[in-house]
Amino acid sequence: MLSDNAKSNGAPAVGVYICHCGINIAHTVDIAETVKFAARLPFVTVAKEYKFMCSDPGQEIIQQDIRDGKINRVVVASCSPLMHEATFRRAMAKGGGNPFMFQMANIREHVSWVTRDKMLATNKAKALIAAAVERVALHSPLESTSVPVHSDVLIVGGGISGIHAALTMANAGKKVYLVERDPTIGGHMAKFDKTFPTLDCSACILTPKMSSVRGHPNITLWTYSEVAGVEGYVGNFKVKVRRKPRYIDEDLCVGCLECIEACIFKKGKVKDEFNQGLSMRKPIYIPFPQATPLVAVIDPESCIQFKTGKCKQTCIESCERNAINFDQKEEIKEVEVGAIILATGFKTFDAARIARYGYGKYPNVYSSLEVERMVNAAGPTGGEVRLQNGEKPKAVGIVHCVGSRDDKTNKWCSRVCCMYSLKLAHLLHERTGAEIYNFYIDMRTPGKGYEEFYERLNQENTHFIRGRVAEISDWAMTPEEEGKLVIRAEDTLVGIVRRVPVDMVVLSVGLEPQADADDVRRMFNISCGQEGWFLERHPKLAPVSTFTDGVFLAGACQGPKDIPDCVAQAGAAAAEALALIDAGKVDLEPNTAFVTEDLCSGCKTCLGLCPYSAINFDGEKKVAVVNGALCKGCGTCVAACPSGALQQNLFTDDQIFHEIKGVVYYV
Length: 667
Fold this sequence. Notes:
By secondary structure, the chain is an alpha/beta fold. The protein is 28% helix and 23% strand.
């Protein structure tokens, strides 16, 4: 059945090893029958089964057969190559074989998990094993190459995750570039008053870390900046960073606030983004008193000088250090780094998307982040909780899961909503003495100390009503509801529909991927899940790695997380980046494309198709040339080449055709 090409390829001696995977495979596939079948295939010299081939004893079986000279090629019929291909390649190398004389037949995901009939599953497993044997007989003994790794690191995002990762890397002696799009680092955590469940002051635990970032000799902090482009490959990325003009010289500004006081606008004219629009700011401003860097920024869209050119420029007159420069231009910085950590965070759900909750219609319906700023002592109200008429609320309703666990908005649980709703319930009761009503679907308190915090709220006589809120309106049906907001919700524990009149409503909004998450993932060549969150390489075994080597994830850009989990993941991402950098080099897979120059017509079809810019054109020879360090083995160019000049190691035409023949012949 095998061609003469296979026979001349180092006298193939194939070992086939079939894994039970506990009962995952053995429950559906007749293992004994499949082993007998594999033993009869051409060039198979060993056919064995074992309960867990990925275990140390399972790997030792393969290694011993290689040492004994029984086999020089291996087929493992088990789970997905994504899961354990690297495991078995290492096993082959330890046994003295070439790790690329290996092929995996996925008879778990492709057979046992999707086929109920045992006979059909067994026949399908046989076909896949036959295909793998046909294919591996044509494998060549390839060798990995290595490239040096640049020791610097880029971290994108200056929230708590980016801050922690940057400090971890910098304290290990690595040069770090921290890029943040806003005028200050701190992210969402900088807006909070307290953190659950310990009720620590958010600023008290965050601002020292922000100051450490600013003063660390190994960290270059670029705020009000965005990544404009990424080129290169693991260990050798070339990154362009666009630095937007602040119209303030960061090296000269000391944050004295004199320019803000001197602005011709005596009062704020623009909604303050940091305070969620609850206060107004001037065209020249500092986001908040602990901003890092403590440097003013001028908003050109609201500054009279930029709009009309006729401003008195009193801000310039007040600045003794001459830090204001209306002619400042955008800059492009270029850096080379060995690893990248993405910590771009999340955005909160827009409560206006659920019209029946009255957000934007009724003035006393707030989002949870707006209330965070309201209860903050450094917020727009100085920590005072007031209604629009200036009075303290006597009854407050908190609606959980707004924009979460909902087929019409987002299906996922945002993980933090229950706990921050409990925190806000405590703070609102503490500041106002109001009756607090929590409307929840399920109370989820899975973290350390979280259940105890829930019990504490029960003891504070907070009302908990289990049921989804149907609507919020000002339609009164009784005298008690006059002048109130009425929350209509089902109480599933009692089995009735309740109408609860309150003075203020807090909508506990969920977490969503950033609006530009798709653009970011394209720039860094990583994947997103169907919800839009950045996708990790493996949810359990590689939760901070991505499918692009050298790019790691930290924090809520990968999915909803609370602060402890964000910090833990940031530390893990930093550790992965450190391991990569300290190795000094990175091994590159040999499954790269190559050009047969005699067949290349110089049509250049492949040049524009390569997503990694790995193909150049040799003007003298008039042929395409593949840069093996940049090539990731995606196969796009191979499929598109009209002359067949492009082939790919481990995926040559002969190997693929024989694999198909193996399936067809034995089906």
